[in-house]
């Protein structure tokens, strides 16, 4: 006989399930309209002008109870219950999901925004927290006693359709940093819903071989939504519901080499090559399936299952109302969408090879009644990607099924893949999935511009080297090698500094001061006066830079200053030999020396005594010599002759020599005291020119003399 509660559980244990749709494919930059499934932001700045999905489907089995090899499933004598390996625990789990993307398409509204319209059919069924030992004990036909205790499992099956629109736009474009966001709004049409939630259910089955005496005893509570018995769980009571849902996502791209993908557009601005991926690292975050579906006509019943019945009674009427005591009944069932958070990182290793890390986290708890959820997973997917071909190898860790490896490819309009096929073929697996689809991709055309300068190669005079439109695609040269390109150089053939727009500095007036530094560039001037000519303020013919008296009219030979007459004797200082003493014009501005002064000089000179027979002056005579110095300094314009004489005693030649030496001695002393040598002369005459008789002693004494005379 059958136990109807656990038979339904056994039915669900072999169902297919899905934790994530299109494993490995959605991260491809050429997934197009499919990218709205995980992150609606991805449709903007894509590699498509438009992408049209004809039909595609994805399904995945994952559970933690059964395991099998992929090849064994195709054996004619393979029995899943008998040959499949079982992993019973106190809490086993199963999921089933089918995801069909119907006719859908995306297109660009403008340079910064895109739109997608999509249709989608989905079905999710799950069994959560069921005793694996109980499943192991129960077969299709039960011919022995068994006991199940303290079960709190939940079962849910939902199918619905989505009619959605996605809008995405670029939120930030700052060269290296690029951000886009997207939102999907969905109208939900509920096809069917059904769930059962067990609370501390215990079952004892006593098998006797006779339907009338084989009995089932149970206790606990059961809540069911839109189903009358577990026998019809795979086909819940027909009714429909409706609701609304939403997806929200953002994608950031790090573009360190963004300038390599820019070109000059027709308007002269900067645009990106739309047919190329520009990022080094792409990060995405999204939350999907926000919303719910309400079934207004569905019924929720709560039952007390503390009862006992025979197999014959069950076969006559297996409904919950017949077998159990109904505690409450309410109308309307609300089904919450399988809300999930997705995190994605895509590393572009080089032009064609990528490495993707993706994580999916369920926001809905398995314990929630009538819940639909994805099981958490992490996947690492290396892939090869070009416009018409993509190859990807997803390696994933699923919450229930563990580590899985798969393979998939995209070839133009066709894509086929599986996130678990490699694991299933190599070893026993607890997950199996497949996805495939057919679409019409309309790619952005590649600009035929090898050097990325925005000019079609057929019109580019330098197709291998980037250059501006104004120079027909060639880089600007620097003919004169002055560091300023010819388009900016006003003198492209002459070497010149950048600050003068590439032209050499000139000197129009030829005064050796460059015009950039010349305050008077049109007039010859002096370097010291910043290229301007010196002025002559007093108009005396001496320029101010040379004029010691620039504000007084003066003489050129006096450095522009007027001549002075300090002593006021009407002899200008330049001609006045005694500028500080009043003199006469006839004596060159010096006072005229009179006979009294000359007599005084001679009186002093006669008082000068010499050592006997020598030319050395005695010390007692220095005072007289100093008096002579004072007089001579007073008459600075007067020149003097110093004459020496002797008597006639002795050798005339020696007397002549001695007289000359004594005159010279006095001259030397006067010079040492500041009298100019030019004013003095000395001469010896010996015994010549006596002034008295040499026959007397007095006469001889008078003849031995030194006389001072004025030289006119």
TrEMBL record:
> Where is this chain primarily localised?
membrane
The protein's matches in Gene3D superfamilies, at most eight in alphabetical order, are given as: OmpA-like domain, TSP type-3 repeat
> GO terms for biological process?
cell adhesion
Q: Which Pfam families match?
A: DUF5723, OmpA, TSP_3
Q: Which PROSITE patterns match?
A: OMPA_2 (PS51123)
Q: Name one GO cellular component term.
A: cell outer membrane
- List each copy of the OmpA-like domain by range: 597-712
Record keywords = Cell outer membrane, Membrane, Signal
Where in or outside the cell it occurs: the entry states: Cell outer membrane
Would I find Cell division among this entry's keywords?
A: no
InterPro entries xref list: Bact_OuterMem_StrucFunc (IPR050330), DUF5723 (IPR043781), OMP_bac (IPR006664), OmpA-like (IPR006665), OmpA-like_sf (IPR036737), Thrombospondin_3-like_rpt (IPR003367), TSP_type-3_rpt (IPR028974)
Look up the signal peptide feature and give its range. 1-19
Q: Does the keyword Membrane apply?
A: yes
Q: Which CDD domains match?
A: OmpA_C-like
GO molecular function terms attached to this record: calcium ion binding
This one is known as Thrombospondin type 3 repeat-containing protein
């Amino acid at each position: 006989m059958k136990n109807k509660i656990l038979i339904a559980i056994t039915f669900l244990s072999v169902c297919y399930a899905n934790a994530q749709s299109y494993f490995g494919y959605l991260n491809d930059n050429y997934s197009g309209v499919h990218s709205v499934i995980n992150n609606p932001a991805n449709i903007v700045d894509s590699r498509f002008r438009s992408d049209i999905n004809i039909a595609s489907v994805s399904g995945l089995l994952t559970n933690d109870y059964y395991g099998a090899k992929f090849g064994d499933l195709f054996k004619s004598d393979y029995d899943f219950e008998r040959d499949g390996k079982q992993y019973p625990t106190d809490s086993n789990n199963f999921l089933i999901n089918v995801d069909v993307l119907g006719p859908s398409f995306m297109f660009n509204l403008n340079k910064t925004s895109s739109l997608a319209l999509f249709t989608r059919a989905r079905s999710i069924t799950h069994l959560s927290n069921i005793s694996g030992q109980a499943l192991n004990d129960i077969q299709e036909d039960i011919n022995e006693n068994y006991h199940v205790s303290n079960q709190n499992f939940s079962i849910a099956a939902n199918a619905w359709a989505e009619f959605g629109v996605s809008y995405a736009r670029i939120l930030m474009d700052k060269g290296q940093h690029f951000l886009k966001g997207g939102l999907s709004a969905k109208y939900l049409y509920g096809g069917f819903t059904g769930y059962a939630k067990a609370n501390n259910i215990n079952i004892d089955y006593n098998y006797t071989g006779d339907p009338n005496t084989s009995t089932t005893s149970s206790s606990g509570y059961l809540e069911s939504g839109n189903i009358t018995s577990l026998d019809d769980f795979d086909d819940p009571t027909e009714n429909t519901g409706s609701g609304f849902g939403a997806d929200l996502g953002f994608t950031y791209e790090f573009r360190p080499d963004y300038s390599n993908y820019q070109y000059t557009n027709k308007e002269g601005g900067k645009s990106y090559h739309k047919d190329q991926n520009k990022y080094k690292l792409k990060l995405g975050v999204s939350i999907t399936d926000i919303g719910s579906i309400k079934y207004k006509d569905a019924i929720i019943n709560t039952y007390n299952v503390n009862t006992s019945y025979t197999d014959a009674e069950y076969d006559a009427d297996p409904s919950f109302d017949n077998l159990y005591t109904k505690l409450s009944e309410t109308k309307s069932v609300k089904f919450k969408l399988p809300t999930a958070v997705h995190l994605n990182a895509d590393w572009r290793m080089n032009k064609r090879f990528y490495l993707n890390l993706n994580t999916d986290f369920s926001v809905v708890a398995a314990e929630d009644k009538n819940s639909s959820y994805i099981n958490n997973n992490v996947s690492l997917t290396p892939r090869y990607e070009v416009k018409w071909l993509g190859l990807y190898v997803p390696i994933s860790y699923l919450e229930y099924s563990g580590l899985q490896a798969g393979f998939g490819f995209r070839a133009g309009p066709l894509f086929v893949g599986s996130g678990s096929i490699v694991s299933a073929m190599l070893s026993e697996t607890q997950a199996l999935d497949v996805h495939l689809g057919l679409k019409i991709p309309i790619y952005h055309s590649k600009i035929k511009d090898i050097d990325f300068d925005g000019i079609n190669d057929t019109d580019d005079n330098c197709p291998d080297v980037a250059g501006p439109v104004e120079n027909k695609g060639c880089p600007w040269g620097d003919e004169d090698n002055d560091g300023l390109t010819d388009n900016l150089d006003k003198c492209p053939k002459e070497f010149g500094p950048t600050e003068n727009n590439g032209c050499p500095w000139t000197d129009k007036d030829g005064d050796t001061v460059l015009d950039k530094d010349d305050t008077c560039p049109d007039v010859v001037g002096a370097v010291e006066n910043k290229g301007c000519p010196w002025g002559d303020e007093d108009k005396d013919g001496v320029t101010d830079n040379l004029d010691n008296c620039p504000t007084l009219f003066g003489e050129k030979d006096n450095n522009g200053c007027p001549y002075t007459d300090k002593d006021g004797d009407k002899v200008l200082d330049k001609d006045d030999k005694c500028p500080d003493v009043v003199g006469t014009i006839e004596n060159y501005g010096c006072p005229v020396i009179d006979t009294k002064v000359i007599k005084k000089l001679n009186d002093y000179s006669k008082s000068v005594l010499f050592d006997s027979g020598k030319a050395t002056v005695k010390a007692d005579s220095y005072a007289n010599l100093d008096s002579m110095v004072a007089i001579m300094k007073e008459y600075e314009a007067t020149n003097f002759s110093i004459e020496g004489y002797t008597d006639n005693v002795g050798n005339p030649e020696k007397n002549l020599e001695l007289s000359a030496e004594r005159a010279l001695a006095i001259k030397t002393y006067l010079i040492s005291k500041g009298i100019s040598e030019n004013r003095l002369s000395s001469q010896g005459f010996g015994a010549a020119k006596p002034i008295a008789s040499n026959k007397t002693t007095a006469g001889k004494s008078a003849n031995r003399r030194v006389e001072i005379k004025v030289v006119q």
